[in-house]
TrEMBL record:
Protein name per the record: Aminotransferase
Annotated source species: Endozoicomonas montiporae
GO biological process: aspartate metabolic process
Ranges of residues in domain Aminotransferase class I/classII large: 179-499
Cofactor: pyridoxal 5'-phosphate
Family in the record: Belongs to the class-I pyridoxal-phosphate-dependent aminotransferase family.
PANTHER family tied to this protein: BIFUNCTIONAL ASPARTATE AMINOTRANSFERASE AND GLUTAMATE/ASPARTATE-PREPHENATE AMINOTRANSFERASE-RELATED (PTHR43795), BIFUNCTIONAL ASPARTATE AMINOTRANSFERASE AND GLUTAMATE_ASPARTATE-PREPHENATE AMINOTRANSFERASE (PTHR43795:SF2)
Length: 527
């Protein structure tokens, strides 16, 4: 593998090899697109669409068929009650009724206002307003984030959301705005908790940013947790930003309570100026998850994506969450007070007479459309509607049926994989299992002893193993080196194949390692 090529680009080379044999099935466990999805919120989306179209057709009905108008809000809730009565057996309709009841009771949102916003969002007939997120939909998604990321942790509700085109757009917008507002400049240090999702490694080194990376290396032999020595690296005042994925990608391990407490203590006492980005996309697969966004609200910006848990990668649904009183805004104010940011504030002069008062989240929204196109910023309203329905499905599901099912599915695949390799491995409490890292040296040692493992890693690269696996068996996995894993390891997604597929992957991994072992024995005899 090239030292610079992304593991996702390397995957394409493996796909070409794996698909070159017409007489066998290819098994691609390289990418994390789940093969399961949430159906109830999608049914609700379709039911809302049907009602919304009926409302649109009430206007201009005297014109040719297919011509509608903007829905009228007067009497909308009453007309919906009639529609609901006529469709009361539909699963999606029961979901909508439960959602309207829940938001009135728990969030204080008038059902008529929420329904009107949902109907207009379904039709996509207005520009998103507010541009960061629709007014009634935002508190619903906030309630979902509190439920999934705070796990009972008591904190204030003073944070706002910016709905984005998936978590990848969120990453792009964050680095662009940090750079545009000079919160990060060329040569500044960014700390990354590694291993980490590849773009966090690649973006800082782009010519646009030229940032220096300081790694906080999680220890494979300590269940991928940070040691105190690694956390102490953050004492360096030159480090301006910390980025982490929690649960991690690719180890799929939750930051332990002790590591979370140590990070929280350091930030709140020694590094009150540190900006933090936590990417919590896999949090909903964990038990009793608490985010750094909950324990360090002042310093932390949170990225969350609905793609993985709800099987919605094609919808492109992500969120940036930031507390009103944040370190990001404090740093902006300090630069403005010192006169450093005069030209930066001028960047936003076309959208406000007082650019200095723009919060960092508001600047993110503006920068997402290069400021000049600020008037058309924001995630499309139908996307925001589906996102909100996903959030409502978890808020309504008090017994957590969907979440328990998703966890059970992922974890059964994990166990099947290791059983068929021949090295059953219990799933620790803090292991999520959306992905798993297979350390080839540890596998080789566990199957055939340390002498073989030493010979194997000394003579054969991880890339060679992956090419051989793809060529002989049609299986595609990702090299872990692209995620900054030091050990010779490969990443297996446990999200996108059925149980039989993971049983086959386990057997074929064992088969290829056994072939290398036979080669080792032959060389031992020859010598």
């Amino acid at each position: 593998m090239s030292p610079t090529i992304s593991p996702f680009e390397f995957k394409d080379q493996l796909l070409d090899i794996a698909s070159s044999h017409a007489d066998r099935m290819m098994l691609n466990a390289g990418r994390g697109n789940p093969n399961f999805l949430a159906t109830a919120p999608r049914r609700a989306f379709l039911q809302l669409g049907e009602f919304a179209l009926q409302e649109a057709e009430r206007s201009y009905s005297y014109l040719n068929s297919g011509f509608g108008g903007l829905p009228e809000t007067d009497g909308l809730l009453q007309r919906f009650d009639v529609f609901r009565h006529n469709h009361e057996d539909a699963d999606g309709m029961r979901f909508i009724q439960a959602a309207l009841s829940l938001v009135k009771d728990q969030l204080g949102i008038p059902p008529d206002q929420l329904l009107a916003e949902m109907v207009n969002a379904s039709l996509g007939c207005y520009y998103p307003q507010p541009m960061s997120m629709l007014q009634c939909l935002e508190p619903v998604v906030k309630a979902y984030l509190r439920q999934e990321l705070f796990s009972g942790f008591i904190t204030d509700d003073h944070f706002h959301l910016f709905a984005t085109e998936g978590g990848t757009a969120a990453m792009s917008y964050i680095f662009a705005s940090l750079h545009a507002n000079r919160l990060l400049s060329a040569g500044d240090k960014v700390a990354l908790m590694t291993p980490i999702f590849t773009p966090y490694l690649e973006i800082p080194e782009l010519a646009d940013y030229q940032l220096e990376i300081a790694e906080l290396e999680a220890d494979e032999h300590n269940n991928w947790q940070l040691s105190h020595d690694e956390i102490r690296k953050l004492h360096d005042p030159g480090i301006k930003l910390l980025c982490l994925v929690n649960p991690s990608n690719p180890p799929s391990v939750v930051l332990s309570q002790s590591s979370l407490q140590a990070l929280t203590h350091l930030i709140q006492t020694q590094r009150k100026d540190l900006m933090v980005v936590t990417d919590d996309v896999y949090a909903t697969f964990a038990d009793d998850f608490v985010s750094l966004f909950a324990t360090c609200p002042h310093n932390t910006l949170c990225v969350y994506s609905f793609s993985k848990f709800f099987g919605a990668t094609g919808w492109r649904l992500g969120i940036i969450a930031l507390h009103n009183d944040s370190a990001f805004d404090q740093l902006l104010k300090e630069r403005s007070d010192s006169g450093v940011a005069g030209d930066v504030n001028a960047r936003y002069a076309s959208i406000t007479d007082d650019p200095q008062q723009l919060s960092f989240l508001e600047r993110l929204v503006a920068d997402s459309r290069s400021v000049a196109l600020h008037h058309s910023a924001g995630l499309s309203s139908p996307q925001q509607l589906q996102m909100t329905l996903f959030a409502l499905s978890s808020l309504i599901d008090s017994e957590r049926h969907y979440q328990r099912g998703a966890k059970r599915l992922i974890r059964s695949r994990y166990q099947t994989l290791y059983q068929n390799i021949g090295l059953p491995q219990p799933l620790a409490d803090d292991v999520v299992g959306y992905y798993t890292l297979l350390d080839l040296e540890l596998l080789a040692c566990g199957l055939h002893g340390q002498a073989f493992a030493d010979w194997f890693v000394g003579r054969h690269s991880c890339a060679e193993f992956l090419f051989r696996l793809a060529d002989e068996t049609g299986i595609v996995l990702l090299p872990a080196a692209g995620f900054d894993v030091r050990a010779p390891a490969v990443r297996v997604s446990l999200a996108n194949l059925d149980i039989a597929g993971y049983a086959a992957i386990g057997r074929f991994i064992r088969q290829v390692l056994d072939e290398f072992f036979q080669e080792y024995l032959q060389r031992q005899q020859d010598s």
